[in-house]
Amino acid sequence: MDIKMLITIFVVNFSYITLNTIRFMLTMKGYRLIAPLVSMAEITIYVLGLSMVLNRLDNPLNLIVYALGYAVGISVGIKIEDYLALGYIMVTAILPSSTEQLNLPEILRDHGYGVTQSFGAGREGERMILEILSPRKNERSLYKLINEKEPRAFIISYEPKFISGGFWTKKVRKRNN
């Protein structure tokens, strides 16, 4: 058993899959310059790693280590993307209407969030509905702020694909240029 070869196979596939995961996320978020550059490094590493395993199929441990590098690479790639927190999120917070006196929309705006306020009717009466745009890196602090002011808030978030208009447009355009 060649430990050095097993470590090399693991590191090569781990690197490939980490880059693959990051490149995929960059592509989905519209980073048109950096995603192709990452893909060049990714495919070079992939060919190297795959050839190492295919040339040594007589040892099943090589394939197992290759698969382990794959699994760990995905996990680390996701953690890196979470750390980078690329893009924006749109959060809908539905609050009991009795929270109007909290002035949560103004508090959120004072913290730099884009907020659109409307009212709706729920099963138990009127509701205040807040549509909040935020960079993903501020996602957790936004949830914390909402929950501090109104723990009964119902919160849903998603990632918008296209943003146009509003006071956020200039910030978003700067990122894309």
UniProtKB/TrEMBL annotation:
It comes from the Bacteria. Coiled coil: none annotated. The keyword Chaperone does not apply. Belongs to the UPF0316 family. CDD domains: YitT_C_like_1. HAMAP family: UPF0316. Residues 113-165 form the DUF2179 domain. One of its GO terms (cellular component) is plasma membrane. NCBIfam families: PRK04164.1-5. It is a multi-pass membrane protein. Residues 21-78 form the DUF5698 domain. This is UPF0316 protein UC7_02410. The chain crosses the membrane at residues 6-26, 33-54, 60-80. Keywords: Cell membrane, Membrane, Transmembrane, Transmembrane helix. It is found in: Cell membrane.
